[in-house]
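Worked example 3 (structure in, sequence out).
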C-alpha cells in the first residue's frame, strides 16, 4: 500500500472542500475531491476506525470526517466539488448536483448501481510531531505526486469604495455595466455551455464579461441547470475570429514587442478554446469541460477581479484596463486556431509557462517595496498559473494519445513550437514550478520556433550554427 501525503491537517481547516490533482510517473492524471465534514459527537464506528488510521488509534473526531473521492460523477462527469452532503441509513453520501445520484463517501457505492472511486484516508503524526493527512494512491500508476491542492471557493474580491479625487478627472469608467444590457439576454437566452461561451466572447464590456462567465455560466454548469454542453450539436454556434472589445480598451492595445502584459485576452482565451474546439472534438470527455472550467474560466475571472480590486485600492484613477497592453496572446490564438493540440502547446505550455518564470521576480519586487497586499494577490495568481500550465500539459498529453502518439509528447510539442512560435523560448526558467506542472527540461531547453522564417533564412542560420561549432579555440598555457 502506497501512501501520498496531502497536507498537515491544520492546513485543511481553512475550507471544507479541496480539489486535488495527482500525476503519476507515467503521466496519468487523477482529479479528486476532499471533503472535510463537521465532526459529530458519536463514538467512531468500526468502519471509521478501519477507514482512518491514526497513530495509536487516538481517534480525533475531526480526523474521521475526512473523505476523498473522484472529482467527477461516474454517471455523466458532473463536477462533484459542489455536491450536496446528506446523511442516510448507511452513512454520509455525496449527491451529484446534475441528476441527484448519491454516492457513499466511504465505499463510493450508489443506489443507482454506479460506483465512484474513493480513497482511504490516513492521518499520521510525522517525526516533527505534526499530524499529516495521507491517502492511498490510485491504481494504474506509480510514483504519484500531488500537483494541486486547491480550496473550493466561489468568493470574488469586490473593489473597495472609490476615494474622492476631485482634483483629478478619472478615465471614463468602461468597467461599469451597461444599464440597458442585462446579464442574461431577454431574447433567446443561452441554453448550452457552447451558447454561453459564444455570448461571453461577444460581450465587449469586461465587467459584464466576468459576470456572465463566472457568476452565471459557470454556476449554471456546476449545478446542472444547463440542458447540455452542446459541443456535439450540429448547430453549435461558431466563436468570433476576434472577441468583441470595448472601444476604450481597444485603444490601449499596442504591438506585441512594446509591452509585456498578457492578461488582456485571458478570459476570452479560456472560453474560446472550448467554443472553438469542443464541436470539432466531440470525443472530449465531460470532465475536460469541468477541469477547464475550474482551472481557466473560474480562476481567470477571479484573477481579473483581484487585479481590479488591487488597482482600485492603490490607484483609483487608473482602473484595470487603463494602461497599454499587447495582443501577442491573441495573435498566437489566431495562429493556432486550426488545432487543439497546437493551441495547448503554444498558449498553455509556452505563453503561460513563461508566467511561471517571471512571477516570482514580480512578487519579490512587491515584497521589497513592503506591499504585502500586492504580494498576496500575485501569489494567488502565480498558483493559478501553475494549474493553467498543468491543465495544458494534461490535455496536450490526452490529444497526443488520441492520435496514437503516447510517449512522444516531447517530440510533438517541440515540433508544434517550431511551427507556431517565432524565435527562442528564453530563460531563465522556473524549473520547480514547471516540473510541478508536468514540464520536464526536455520540453523547453534549447527550444526555438521557426514560424515566419524563410527557407533562405533557415539555411543561413544553419550555416552560422555549423560555423560556430567548427571554430577551434586554443588557450595559452
Amino acid at each position: 500500500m502506497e501512501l501520498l501525503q496531502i497536507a498537515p491537517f491544520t492546513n485543511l481547516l481553512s475550507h471544507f472542500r479541496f480539489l486535488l490533482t495527482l500525476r503519476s510517473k507515467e503521466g496519468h492524471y487523477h482529479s479528486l475531491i476532499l471533503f472535510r465534514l463537521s465532526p459529530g459527537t458519536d463514538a467512531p464506528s468500526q468502519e471509521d476506525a478501519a477507514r482512518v488510521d491514526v497513530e495509536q488509534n487516538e481517534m480525533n473526531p475531526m480526523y474521521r470526517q475526512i473523505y476523498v473521492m473522484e472529482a467527477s460523477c461516474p454517471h455523466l462527469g458532473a463536477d462533484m466539488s459542489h455536491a450536496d452532503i446528506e446523511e442516510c441509513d448507511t452513512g454520509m453520501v455525496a449527491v451529484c448536483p446534475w441528476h441527484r445520484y448519491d454516492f457513499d463517501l466511504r465505499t463510493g457505492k450508489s443506489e443507482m448501481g454506479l460506483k465512484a472511486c474513493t480513497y482511504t484516508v490516513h492521518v499520521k503524526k510525522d517525526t516533527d510531531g505534526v499530524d499529516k493527512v495521507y491517502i492511498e494512491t490510485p491504481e494504474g500508476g506509480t510514483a504519484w505526486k500531488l500537483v494541486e491542492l486547491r480550496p473550493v471557493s466561489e468568493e470574488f474580491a469586490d473593489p473597495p469604495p472609490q476615494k474622492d479625487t476631485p482634483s483629478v478627472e478619472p478615465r471614463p469608467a468602461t468597467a461599469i455595466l451597461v444599464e440597458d444590457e442585462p446579464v442574461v439576454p431577454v431574447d433567446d437566452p443561452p441554453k448550452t455551455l457552447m451558447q454561453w461561451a459564444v455570448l461571453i466572447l461577444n460581450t465587449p464590456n469586461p465587467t459584464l464579461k466576468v459576470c456572465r462567465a463566472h457568476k452565471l455560466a459557470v454556476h449554471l454548469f456546476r449545478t446542472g441547470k444547463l440542458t447540455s454542453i452542446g459541443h456535439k450539436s450540429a448547430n453549435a454556434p461558431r466563436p468570433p475570429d476576434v472577441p468583441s472589445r470595448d472601444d476604450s480598451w481597444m485603444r490601449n492595445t499596442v504591438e506585441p514587442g512594446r509591452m509585456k502584459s498578457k492578461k488582456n485576452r485571458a478570459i476570452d482565451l479560456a472560453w474560446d478554446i472550448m467554443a472553438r474546439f469542443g464541436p470539432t472534438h466531440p470525443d472530449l470527455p465531460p470532465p475536460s469541460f469541468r477541469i477547464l472550467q475550474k482551472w481557466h474560466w473560474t480562476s481567470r475571472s477571479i484573477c481579473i477581479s483581484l487585479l481590479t480590486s488591487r488597482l482600485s485600492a492603490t490607484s483609483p484613477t487608473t482602473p484595470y484596463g487603463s494602461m497599454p497592453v499587447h495582443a501577442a496572446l491573441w495573435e498566437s490564438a489566431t495562429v493556432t486556431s486550426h488545432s487543439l493540440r497546437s493551441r495547448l502547446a503554444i498558449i498553455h505550455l509556452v505563453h503561460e509557462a513563461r508566467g511561471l518564470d517571471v512571477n516570482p521576480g514580480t512578487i519579490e519586487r512587491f515584497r521589497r517595496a513592503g506591499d504585502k497586499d500586492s504580494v498576496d494577490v500575485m501569489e494567488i495568481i502565480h498558483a493559478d498559473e501553475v494549474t493553467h500550465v498543468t491543465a495544458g500539459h494534461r490535455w496536450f498529453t490526452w490529444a497526443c494519445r488520441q492520435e496514437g502518439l503516447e510517449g512522444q509528447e516531447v517530440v510533438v510539442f517541440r515540433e508544434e513550437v517550431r511551427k507556431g512560435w517565432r524565435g527562442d523560448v528564453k530563460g531563465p526558467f522556473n524549473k520547480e514550478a514547471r516540473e510541478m506542472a508536468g514540464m520536464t527540461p526536455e520540453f523547453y531547453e534549447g527550444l526555438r520556433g521557426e514560424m515566419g522564417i524563410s527557407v533562405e533564412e533557415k539555411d543561413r542560420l544553419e550555416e552560422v550554427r555549423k560555423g560556430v561549432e567548427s571554430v577551434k579555440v586554443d588557450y595559452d598555457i
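Notes: Residues 41-46, 49-58, 154-179, 253-264 have pLDDT under 50 and may be disordered. The first strand starts at residue 3 and ends at 8.
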